[in-house]
Amino acid sequence: MASIQDSAPDAAHVAPAVSTPALMRLALVATGLVVAFGVVPAYATDYWLSSIIIPTIVMGLAGISLNLLQGYAGLVSLGSAAFMSVGVFSAYNLILRAPDLPLPGVFVLAGLIAAAVGVVFGLPALRIKGFYLAASTLGAQFFFQWLFTNYPWFSNNSQSLTISAPRLEFLGYDLQSPHGRYLLVVSVTALLIGLAFLVVRSRLGREWMAIRDMETAASVLGIRVARRKLEAYAVSSFFLGITGVLWGFAYLGTADAHTYNLDKSFQILFIVLIGGTATIFGNFLGAAFIVLTPIVLDHLVLASNVAYLSDQGAITNLQRVIFGAIIIFILIKEPDGLSAWIRRGVEAIRGRLAS
Amino acid sequence: MAALLELHDVSLSFRGVTAIDALSFSVEQGSICALIGPNGAGKSSLLNVINGVYRADSGDIVFDGVRFEAIRPGKAARLGIGRTFQHNALFRRLSVRENVLAGLSRLGQASFIETIFRVGRDAAERRTFAARADRVIAFLGLEAHRDRIVSTLPYGVQKRVDLARALVSEPKLLLLDEPMAGMNQDEKAEMSRIISEVNRTFGTTIVLIEHDVGIVLGLARHIVVLDYGRKVADGAPDQVRDDPEVIAAYLGTVH
Amino acid sequence: MAFFLETLIAGLFAGLMYGLVAIGFVLIYKASGVFNFAQGAMVFLAALVFVSLVERGIPFWGAFALTALLMAIVAVAVEALVLRPLRNRDPLTLFMATLGLSFVIDGTAQFFLGTDVHMLDLGIDDIAQDYGGILVSRFDIVASLIVIALVAVLAAVFSKTRMGISLRAVADDTLAAQSIGIRLPVIWRIVWSVAGFVALVAGLLWGARQGVQFSLSLVTLKALPVLIIGGFSSIPGAIVGGLIVGASEALADIYLGPIVNGSVSTWFAYILAVAFLLIRPAGLFGDREIERV
């Protein structure tokens, strides 16, 4: 019996040693790193770092986490924030009960604990599909909020059930200042973005997308669907666990069960849909939208100087209306999310360069 | 030659409606067997039973010396049963190359960690898989479409991608569900040529469903005629063509 | 034993409310394939508008009619501004759109009518009556009768009238229904209006019990487990699912709560729903679909 290896003529797919797209990609990565570690810390004020840049990056990371699960593997989750809370409470207890553990170890372990929890709540995915899956993740959302509220052990028996960020330091560097916290956030994020790219460009990522696009065909080809789905929950929850630690320790400085409520889960869902499914960088656009919209609306309302709006409750509700309307608008007008903007921009630049 | 696939008294029903009724036949190693019969005769259901998408109510199947009553699709794939689909079942947001690579999944040995970090067995698999995918893409003349997203391709090309995806892991048995549906005569002739070349070159045993009797008589060495889930005739093309029951039930009324 | 039964009955009453909200979901899901997260916001909107009208001196039935009219206007607006532009999009996108819609609806309601808690008196006494040693509120009994009557009317409308038959046709096969001349936008407008009316009834009964406040809209979260247990496409299923969730939640709270250190009602229904899914994936009243490949 002949085999495909020796029967067909050699395919002429010999790429040049360094192709132009690869060079361009390298240049983009380098530029990104220079901006993230050089330009931003040099020019951004403390207010910008603490109130806009850090939350945007962390929420973007949360979007990546959910996008791995939903955009790539096609699985639904309405409980992303729950896995973030598992991460932050794990990290808090690790630091409290194993003080010698260095910060990177804390992050990785917190991520792994969240991953294990994610697998447990992902188990129903082996038998049920589609929107029904929302039930188990929504259950996780309420269960962990309940757990961290009803068992003070997790917050070291603190009266308020609140945990506060430990002193953040790594290799003797103090990471308490806005700049320190920014550097922590951006370093962890850079590593996780790298990991996310490794995952989605691996066989694992390809098989996730195959399952997402046509599950029956995937199983007929011998893809181990059940295992891949659980791995998707594990990877996504690993990312979410670490994201939760950053949100609590590097952004807020404090956290309790309510920090990671259903609203947060929905925000993450919005980030994915606004940013675009099955993208990595689009999530940061979605996150910027989520973080900036309330701030911009606040300023607009203040500037408008309408007496009726001096009532804070009215402002909050007006924001709610506008926010909801913008979401519907984006869903209607940009089915592929705001990352379609980037794509169009890149194509426009490429077109100009070519001409 | 010995039989690669044997079905013994296989029955299947949906909510009480019989789709396949105590069906038995066997397919010889290295042959091309065509299933024909009117719509609703149970042809697609039969393929679904063979590779485990549906579970038969009774009866058993022997494939390559392994006997089973029910099998999971993944297990069937790993035993060496490949499959294409009647309706478009490609991974529509992936490129042609990624679809074909996904067809190699049954051979993947690398673990989760090896896969992510591209170490250990994954490194070797990446190379061999890429080479195999490229060769099958060349074999089926899909080079020009290699990096296109499949949902943007014309229907006929998608059908070939489906075949490439099933063929790339070199299964022992290939189940083709209407590989020429919706094609014009030229495209059908081309697909027919490809199928017999696959059979000749790789020795792959093929079971296919096709409505165009002219094509079937030219391509298959063995024909099984189904009607309402029952076997009406089973034999070489000449034999089947002259069978009065077949003419009455099928050939006489269609085309 | 009496305590057990009282707990059970209180739970069943709550379950009836869940079921009522879930019926709104079922109607919309059948007609447009949308899991309408905004159903809870519609319950809240209806209750808040109604109570505000009554507080401004409008008599009960006048306020009821005006609110029902408003819910129909909301339905027409939703069809035109959300559903039609999002036609043929995937269920998750539609779900997200209704999430956005719920922000718009409850934000608008509170922007104009304020965030205060309103007491709502429907004129039904909330007094306990003794039935052979078991205390049951008269309000609960009357409310249950209203719900049962509403369900009976809906069931009759959907099995007997032309509109009901059209709806079932749309639910069975949207394309075929369109090809025989059923106009989807019309069906959607009607069904969302009926769902709005159901939301009004639910809002009044639930609001009279809890006070009209934002938390009314959270009842939507309980609809998911209810629908999973009852099946997404069955009105009786929604009620039965609601009763099961309400009763088991109340009992779990009383008997399981003390063991695990606090009320379990926030998450118990979901665990129950997942357990149901694993045993009976299509719910109690749903059909299992055959996948065609």
From TrEMBL, chain A:
- Main localization (coarse): membrane
Q: Which UniProt keywords apply?
A: Cell membrane, Membrane, Transmembrane, Transmembrane helix
Record GO terms (molecular function): branched-chain amino acid transmembrane transporter activity
UniProt keyword Nucleotide-binding present = no
CDD domains under this entry? TM_PBP1_LivM_like
Transmembrane spans: 22-41, 47-68, 75-95, 101-123, 130-148, 182-200, 232-254, 266-292, 313-332
Under which name does UniProt file this protein? Branched-chain amino acid ABC transporter permease
From TrEMBL, chain B:
Domain ABC transporter positions: 5-253
PROSITE patterns with a match to the protein in the record: ABC_TRANSPORTER_2 (PS50893)
Asked whether the keyword Transport is assigned, the reply is yes
What does UniProt give as GO cellular component?
plasma membrane
Q: Where is the signal peptide?
A: none
Instruction: Please verify whether the record's keywords include Magnesium.
Output: no
What InterPro entries does the record point to?
AAA+_ATPase (IPR003593), ABC_AA/LPS_Transport (IPR051120), ABC_transporter-like_ATP-bd (IPR003439), BCA_ABC_TP_C (IPR032823), P-loop_NTPase (IPR027417)
GO MF terms held by the record: ATP binding; ATP hydrolysis activity
Alphabetized, the UniProt keywords read: ATP-binding, Nucleotide-binding, Transport
What is this protein called in UniProt? ABC transporter ATP-binding protein
**Taxonomic source organism:** Kumtagia ephedrae
From TrEMBL, chain C:
Q: Name one GO biological process term.
A: amino acid transport
In terms of CDD domains, this protein maps to: TM_PBP1_LivH_like (cd06582)
**Topology within the bilayer:** Multi-pass membrane protein
Keywords for this protein: Amino-acid transport, Cell membrane, Membrane, Transmembrane, Transmembrane helix, Transport
Tell me the compartments it is located in. Cell membrane
A Gene Ontology molecular function term for this protein is: transmembrane transporter activity
Q: Does the keyword Membrane apply?
A: yes
Q: Which GO terms describe its cellular component?
A: plasma membrane
Entry's transmembrane regions: 6-27, 34-54, 60-82, 94-113, 141-158, 186-206, 226-247, 259-279
The keyword Transmembrane helix appears for this protein = yes
Instruction: Give the UniProt family note.
Output: Belongs to the binding-protein-dependent transport system permease family. LivHM subfamily.
What name does this protein carry? Answer: Branched-chain amino acid ABC transporter permease
